[in-house]
Specification:
Helices cover about 35% and strands about 25% of the residues. By secondary structure, it is of the alpha/beta class. The protein is globular. GO terms for molecular function: nucleotide binding.
Length: about 325
Amino acid sequence: MRIGIIGAGGMGTVHFNNYAHIAGCEVAALCDPSPQAQKLVQGMDVRVYADPGEMLAQEQLDVVDVCTPTFLHKQHVAQALQSGRHVICEKPLALHYADARTLYDLAEQKGVLLLVGQVLQYAPSSRVLKDLVRTKEYGRLLDAQFLRLSACPRWVKNGWLFDREKSGHIPFDLHIHDLDLIISMLGKPDEAACTSAGRPGLSYKEHYRFSYRFGDTTVCAEAAWYNADIPFTATWRACFENAVVIHDGERVTAYQFDAPPRAFDVEEKVKIPTGINLPPTGMFLEELSDFIRIISENPDGLQPRKEEILELVRILESYTADA
């Protein structure tokens, strides 16, 4: 399967490196006007383009993988879909529900698949939590809390993350990961709300608290770009009827009365260096391998996770509309 990647920044580099580990996949072309693109493919038979339209016109591609900054996703995904290629898009698909809906409609008109890279779905810790919610091994989920906290991302090139129209700020940068997992487990929330805070004079809020209700189940979450050099934090705690299960960022442990703590196996069998501010991981390999499998098999032509992704964008957009 021949892949063309648009974007040679952090995520483009991660995807490029992971495709090398997927049998039957070949990155045939890379589109990015920066010197990073030439550096990435040095010594390889991979053609580099500065313009996505030229790459799409010149190359015989099965899949286009969009890894550009968020505000370019709509344009690049639409270009690739219009050319009749299957598309993988790094999160988020779009910053507006109407745009996301339009892209799915275009994919269906062209008879191709549109897959969105919500990589947390492929984390071993996420799979443990999803299995426990599904099987009710410890009873019904009563409440859950998710934390995703970061230092202010000063490292972002040109500071585009701080422009709401380009990034969607914290809801689309950080909370999107946890909310996607929440929706995939519990469906559409009956209630969704958030509060935010930050220093005066900034174009963005620095800290958000989110709350959701799914019937009798409550979920809360926090996400932040703190004005402090804190370690990145991504944890969760899930309270079931008969146990509390905690992910501390590394381990997943279940606690009960009258039973010793249970440690779940969340060790990744394969770890590939990311080259970005994430340690080596197998999540991206799992994700991209699954996407390639779905595209190859495509048993029914249905868009994978379409309604969940649309609901995700709809809720996140509601948080940024009046920010």
